[in-house]
């Protein structure tokens, strides 16, 4: 039986009417929600919990995206869970990731906790009762139901799953071919003999180009400006040697994770301290695939330092190889407008296309698009402050799992889970029912800064989302560093009695 059918079967008939109150409600059954549920179950087996998920099955991102070749852009040793060894190739396609998540949920008996096809619309906190009432829409019949919980753990990811971000270009309606966004890829799109133009040069474009090259007439990556890519051999000697030693799976997984983290730490350090040398190495790796005559400076040398956006790994340089074979190419130019037969570029030339893929990113959706009210008052997120990048001022008993953008997402999901677990134990020990982050007297004059420092990370969806998100400050616990190597020390040691958490 396939995974989706299994999930739906597990979910069948399971709604919230049978048990309307839970100690903890986890929103989202993607990689973060599954991780949260695992840790909660391990550390607080006495607490009842459920997971509510809008989609018909688990997996989140790995279910939503079905475009050709869909795969991770970081290694699965660190993108996978700390508690479930990953034994396959480092960069993995969505079906492998979904299979891994399915196994993890089965082993931990998590499937039965998820209510699929349930969307959180809004949440009301009642200070007297110290509980959230969640207003949830059941997608199967459109009915709205209320469920309550003491603690709300938002693991809903960061973007609108139903629709990707497509900029509006002049003349789009004149184009006679098909325009698709990778996030809503039509099952029946046949690219045979089609000229395909992919707009964008992020990880999605780098995945799509080699996946469709050779299967369509020609594939072009149209980019406004270049992106850094890191070709990486899938035939990893270190991994093979390790595998041949017949180590316990846990030991193998642990060594692989440590190695990846060490290598990434070194790349991050170099991206700040010696960006030119690092850039030259990346260019040399690209040159090895593309040959000596390729105009690398034009297409693959960005103006920003490496790692300011996620450095996309390309297994065996497959995108470069497709270019070298002549099945794909890159055009670095600005779009003037769409026309009937393709895209008119700034230099006046026409880039012909039958299919245009807008690999232009996401629409950021703070906290799953739900509205939050506390004692009847709406809480406006942009007026609030992030506490350790996990909790939010003004919102009691609520944690939010937002992972890392450079290091694998799940490395932070684990740290967040440990923090929440410790907080719940601390509340038990104090005998309190609620915790709310609040500024101390000395924090009140802090200059608000965007939730993620644009100097540090400037991906489009992050930049577009600044005005929608809570802010960060200039001192702990109000900073959101997005730095694994700092937070692996600071989060486990975070003081829960530093005056920034108000307990009742
Ligand atoms: C194509 C692609 C490739 C990526 N590759 C990597 C990678 O290699 N490494 C890496 O570290 N990161 C990668 N990322 C980032 C990736 O999104 C995260 O790492 C991770 O999958 C996010 O998991 P999540 O569970 O937090 O969120 P999601 O995967 O977004 O899952 C959230 C779930 O919550 C549900 N939900 C949202 N709102 C509501 C609501 N109101 N009510 C009910 N349910 C709701 C959604 O339906 C969804 O199933 C990639 C992202 C994309 C899009």
What can you see in these coordinates?
- The protein is built from 14 helices and 23 strands.
- With 504 residues, it is an alpha/beta fold.
- The protein has two domains: 301 residues, FAD/NAD(P)-binding domain; 136 residues, FAD/NAD(P)-binding domain (3-Layer(bba) Sandwich), CATH 3.50.50.
- The strands form six sheets. Strands 1, 2, 3, 4, 5, 6, 17, 18 and 21 form a nine-stranded mixed beta sheet that branches. It has a five-stranded parallel beta sheet with strand order 7-16-8-9-12.
- α2 runs parallel beside α12, α6 crosses α11 and α8 crosses α9.
- The N and C termini lie far apart (48 Å).
- The mean pLDDT is 94.
- The protein binds flavin-adenine dinucleotide.
Provide tags for this entry.
alpha/beta; globular; FAD/NAD(P)-binding domain; binds flavin-adenine dinucleotide; 5-stranded parallel β-sheet; 9-stranded mixed β-sheet; 504 residues; 2 domains
Please give a quick description of this structure.
By secondary structure, the chain is of the alpha/beta class. The protein is built from 14 helices and 23 strands.
CATH architecture of the largest domain, please? 3-Layer(bba) Sandwich
For the record, give the distance between the C-alpha atoms at the N and C termini, rounded to a whole number: 48 Å
What does the radius of gyration come to? 23 Å
Bound molecules: flavin-adenine dinucleotide
Average pLDDT, rounded to a whole number, is 94
- DSSP strand content: 15-25%
At the first level of CATH, the class of the largest domain is Alpha Beta
CATH domain topology of the largest domain: FAD/NAD(P)-binding domain
Helix content: 25-40%
């Amino acid at each position: 039986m396939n995974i989706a059918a299994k999930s739906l079967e597990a979910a069948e008939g399971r709604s919230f009417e049978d048990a309307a109150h839970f100690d903890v409600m986890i929103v989202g059954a993607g990689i973060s929600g599954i991780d949260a549920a695992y840790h909660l179950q391990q550390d607080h087996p006495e607490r009842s919990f459920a997971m509510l998920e809008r989609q018909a099955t688990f997996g989140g991102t790995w279910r939503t995206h079905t475009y050709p070749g869909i795969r991770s852009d970081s290694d699965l040793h660190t993108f996978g869970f700390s508690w479930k060894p990953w034994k396959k190739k480092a960069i993995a396609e969505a079906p492998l990731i979904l299979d891994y998540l399915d196994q993890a949920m089965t082993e931990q008996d998590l499937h039965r906790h998820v209510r699929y096809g349930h969307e959180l619309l809004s949440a009301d906190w009642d200070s007297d009762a110290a509980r959230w009432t969640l207003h949830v829409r059941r997608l199967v019949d459109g009915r709205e139901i209320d469920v309550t919980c003491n603690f709300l753990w938002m693991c809903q990811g960061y973007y609108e799953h139903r629709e990707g971000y497509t900029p509006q270009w002049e003349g789009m309606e004149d184009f006679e071919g098909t325009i698709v966004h990778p996030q809503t890829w039509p099952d029946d799109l046949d690219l045979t003999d089609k000229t395909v133009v992919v707009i964008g040069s992020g990880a999605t474009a780098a995945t799509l180009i080699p996946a469709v090259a050779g299967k369509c007439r020609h594939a072009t990556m149209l980019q406004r400006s270049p992106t850094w890519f890191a070709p990486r051999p899938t035939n990893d000697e270190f991994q093979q040697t390790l595998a041949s030693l017949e180590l316990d799976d846990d030991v193998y997984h642990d060594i692989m994770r440590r190695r990846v983290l060490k290598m990434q730490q070194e790349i991050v350090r170099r991206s700040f301290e010696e960006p030119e040398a690092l850039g030259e190495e990346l260019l040399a790796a690209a040159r090895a695939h593309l040959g000596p005559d390729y105009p690398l400076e034009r297409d693959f040398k960005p103006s920003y330092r490496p790692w300011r956006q996620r450095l996309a790994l390309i297994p065996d340089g497959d995108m470069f190889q497709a270019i070298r074979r002549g099945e794909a190419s890159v055009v670095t130019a600005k779009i003037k407008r769409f026309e009937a037969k393709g895209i008119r570029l700034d230099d006046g030339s026409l880039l012909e296309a039958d299919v245009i893929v807008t690999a232009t990113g996401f629409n950021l959706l703070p906290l799953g698009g739900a509205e939050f009210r506390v004692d009847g008052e709406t809480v406006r997120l942009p007026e609030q402050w992030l506490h350790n990048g996990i909790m939010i001022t003004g919102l009691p008993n609520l944690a939010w799992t937002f992972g890392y953008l450079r290091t694998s997402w799940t490395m932070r999901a684990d740290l967040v889970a440990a923090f929440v677990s410790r907080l719940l134990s601390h509340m038990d020990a104090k005998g309190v029912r609620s915790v709310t982050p609040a500024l101390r007297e000395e924090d009140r004059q802090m200059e608000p800064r965007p939730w993620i420092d644009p100097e540090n990370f400037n991906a489009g969806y992050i930049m577009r989302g600044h005005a929608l998100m809570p802010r960060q400050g200039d001192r702990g616990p109000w900073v959101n560093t997005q730095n694994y190597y700092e937070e692996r020390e600071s989060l486990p040691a975070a003081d829960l009695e530093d005056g920034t958490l108000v307990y009742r």
